[in-house]
Amino acid sequence: MSRQKFGELWLREGERNMGFFHKMVSAHKMRNSVCSFKINGQWMFDPSGLKEGVVNTFQNLLLEGEDWRPDCERLESRELGVEEAAGLEVPFSEAELFSALTNLCGDKDLGMDGFNLAFWQFHWDVVKEEEI
């Protein structure tokens, strides 16, 4: 948006507007910069200290600690029976596929084939024979 404004002003006023343009760019640059940062309760103003402090803070945040991991040994789980295990390999029915498809939001990203879910929902009657 600001580029458009500056472009319009430059077209209207020509070279007379260059001083104004440079002042505005400098003001935006100052506003969009980080001059200080509060790290561990202390303000840092030195650029090298800023960089080091930010890197150390994020490294400490992202380090894997042993205390947050779940303990899987105490989980109670049971094994699947033969029938339950065989049921996992049964193909989906047309009704299950249609139900899953209609419950999804249609305007998600395109799939590998280049079509979004709205296409599949709208044209299900045509494409279901090839997909099942």
Quickly list its features.
132 residues, two-stranded antiparallel ribbon, 7 helices, 5% strand
Explained architecture:
- With 132 residues, the protein is mainly alpha-helical.
- The chain has 7 helices and 2 strands; from the N terminus they run ααββααααα.
- It has a two-stranded antiparallel sheet.
- The chain is flat, with a radius of gyration of 30 Å.
Entry summary:
The chain is 54% helix and 5% strand. It contains seven helices and two strands, in the order H-H-E-E-H-H-H-H-H. Strand 1 and strand 2 form a beta hairpin.
**Overall 3D form:** flat
List unreliable stretches of 5+ residues.
none
Query: How large a portion of the residues is in β-strands, by DSSP E?
Result: under 5%
Helix/strand class: mainly alpha
Question: If helices are DSSP runs of H or I spanning 4 or more residues, what is the number of helices?
Answer: 7
Number of strands: 2
Write the layout of secondary structure elements.
Elements: H1 2-13, H2 18-31, E1 37-39, E2 42-44, H3 47-62, H4 82-87, H5 94-102, H6 117-122, H7 124-131
Antiparallel strand pairs: 1-2
